[in-house]
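subagent[fold] <- orchestrator: predict structure for attached chain, return tokens only, no commentary.
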Amino acid sequence: KAIFFTIAIIFALSGLVTMGIYHASGKNSLNYSVEFQGGTSTTVDFAKEYSIDEFNNEIKPVIADIIGDNDIQGQKVTGTNKLVIKTKDIDATKRAEIKSTLIDQFGADENSFETVYISSSVSNEMLKDALIAVIIVVIFMLLYIWFRFKNVRFASSAVLALIHDILVVLAFYAIFRTSVGNSFIACMLTILGYCINSTIVIFDRIRENLKKPGLREDLANTVNVSITQTLTRSIYSSFTTFLCMAVLYIMGVEAIKEFAMPIMVGIVAGAFSSVLVTGPLYYAMGRKSKKDKK
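subagent[fold] -> orchestrator:
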């Protein structure tokens, strides 16, 4: 039990430590994308129509080489040859170099460039909304599990495991400097919704086994038996979901990959916490509760 708790704490805190190191060195704690950090949005009219895949494969790498950053987003303007290109804030020299490159290599109309600056105040508001959304979900998860199982120990151990899963995914974003954009919000909420499933199944089995003679007298054995009985189901469900996300990551475009990889990390973290953390947490809280009664 202590080993699993230690591993969980190390992984959960690694992201916070990494973010602190980056912040202390004068850099952003996370690799915020345009939506969260602000930047520029440039609308360009090309001589021919480029699809988003063509933009990602042909135009985006060229712009990335110029600005030294791969956080570039492209969006088509329906019914035209125009593309909206979003980048982080760059200086006038690099903007001029991007303009001349798009004109020379990709047939962009010299007079069509329209640049709009994305306010950082809007970005801060989005970041605040994302944090509030995660907190609200966690609170409602706590209330739901408390109401369903009529036991605060089930609810608190499940929520602590969810917080662990979120912190592990946050560590992935921090350590590997994965772009934090709109998909970040969707990713965190998806993980919160998915990772609770295996935990609910295990808790349901613990509750059933606590009613059986021979098991209810020994809490440690009850928890172990319940985890063993649901282990195959937990592994299979996590593996099949992980496999689907892996296929999306391999076959998908860049935007899909930015969503699929953190989800894969969250699935692994959720499987670990559901099987090896939530049960022992419930047992530890139950044992402490019995000591308090004595």
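orchestrator: received. Logging for downstream: DSSP finds ten helices and four strands in the chain. Residues 238 and 268 are 7 Å apart (CA to CA).
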